[in-house]
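ESCALATION

Customer reports they have been waiting on this structure for their group meeting. Please prioritize. Original submission:
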Amino acid sequence: MAFRLSSTFSLTPMNSRLRSELAAGLVLWGLLSLAWLVYQPGLAGGFLFDDYSNLAPLGAYGPIHNWNTFVTYMLSGISSPTGRPIALLSFLLDARNWPTSPYPFKVTNVLIHLLNGALLAWLSLKLLRLRLDAASAAWAAVLAAGIWLLHPYLVGVTLYVVQRMAMLDALFVMAALLAYLHGRQRLQAGRARNGWLWLSLGFGGFYVLAVLSKGNGALLPLFVLLIEATVLAGQPFTAPRSWRPWRWIFLYLPLIVFSAYLLSLWPGILASDGNKYMRFTVWQRLLTEPRVLLDYLWHLLAPRAYTAGLATDNYPISTGPLHPWTTLPALTAVIGLIAFAWRARRRRPYLALAILFYFAAQSLESSFIPLEIYFEYRNYLPSIFLPLPLALWLVNSPHLRAWMRPALAAALLALLAGLTYQRATLWGHPFEQAKVWYLVNPGSARGATMLALQYEAHGQYPAAVAVLDRTLRRHPNDLMLTLNLGLAECGAGRLSPATLAHMQKVLRTTPWAGNVVYNALDQLIDDWHAGRCGGLHAADIETLIAKAMENSVIATDGGLRQGLFALRGKLALLQGHPRRALADFRAALSAWPEPGAALRLAAELGASGHPRLGLELLDYYRALKPVQPQGFNVRRLHALWLEHIGFYRQQMAHVRKILEQQVHAPKPSSAPSQQS
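Update from on-call: job pushed to the front of the queue and completed.
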């Protein structure tokens, strides 16, 4: 009897669907476990590049252990107008001070990647169920999610700590799309209250979280409209009376406001001809990006274990439609792909969605906003639907025999897992990683610098000098290479006159000055003072600073000038000229009046044994008008919050008290010598 009941039950459509989804779910768990295993070698890696600047706020205002320090930290983001506070909040899962270990950050990133893989499977399942039978939908959804989850191109996002911002953006975008689809289904089923809750609170809430994770989240309404135009097109839906107002409030209006905001940036970007730290104009960026997007696609469609990673700063710029000659064909290809997808949206909705979603998700970072030209880590969210057409073909192709489908799927997943394991292993060994990036793209100034820094960390200064010198011959006017070559020669024991002369020339003429100027010259001062750099004298450093101040870019940047004056004052202190140092510190604060700098420089005077001069500097700063962030953004909120809690007022009082105590402290008397 029990056997007959079981047999009868197994014949019902509902049971068939449950069995298919259960089996597919078990396979998904297996793929998630496999992904966790292949990522393990990468957890041993370290921080790199802009991890440092984005994670430094963890310790900028002391350990985060109370409400004031928590809010101060949450408003300290530097990556966008919003500051990406959700991403900053997530970093508190791993540390509450700085510096710290990268290991917990990387573990959390991998766990978020696994969660995103599960969400993608769920989202794909809901989309595929609209047009496929239950079994095909379940297996295609799991296979598509597995391909994405195990793709080696995403290792750089997952193991690059600061890219958690992109991962959280993808998480909340997928959660919002799931909420939208579920709410829409509830409305169609006649459950209006439940449907509107999912659409308004679910979709709206995740929309806000996505925007606060990364700016790409603002494109979410566009993603919804693309799904409506492809997969949902032609599907039965009885729109309730409130449907049109809801779409205006949650879809059209946010897109209009966001587009207006972007357009408001255009005149300023155009007037400044892009970004003074970048090596291209706005128009050159727009011409170059189609080539970049096709290159991204090639890496996604033809996966490999090793790429140039961060060493892509020398990507060839398009200066005209035929310079290089691939510019116009690439632009034509991108327009053609978008046009093809739009025309095919009825016949091949999932292929159309994959193509249109990819280009839509890339549109913000591949437009006129002066970001880096090429950054392979921008493909995390845009790539989520790209495996879907392949998964559908493997599951449903009439040209494949039944046994071939799982065999091909397993072989593909095994290949991706192997490549991802290789790539993750490389990310777990920073020295080898720098070598590979440099070998893949030996013309990259950033790649050469990162490899040189690894050589220096291992005490191999001659090797660092060789790498930098070789790359500098390709880019003789590169500021980063030039300054780092000088530092590497110092580390090797002696700065050559030729390198010193070249440093002077590049500092005076470079159009792309940045924080590297301050950091390199500060290190040179330390090397000179410690006697680590033969051939370098204090007068040489003063000349380098003077040449930098002659630079037209630095002359218009108050922050850079503040740093240079501060360095000149530091050098004067080390030479025993405190009054000259005070004059330079005053000039630094005049160039960019900022309370943090005033505190730091006053403390430097006190630590050098000149507390009265430190007090004079604080008095001088009191008469200046501090600079304030412009516009309504997180930096403005951060400044207002610090003023509200009296942070700098308290710090000023604290430093002043210490300096006054030093002034009134009794002078130590020399002990009487003992007679033998």
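Sent to customer with the following note: The chain is about 70% helix and 0% strand.
Escalation resolved.
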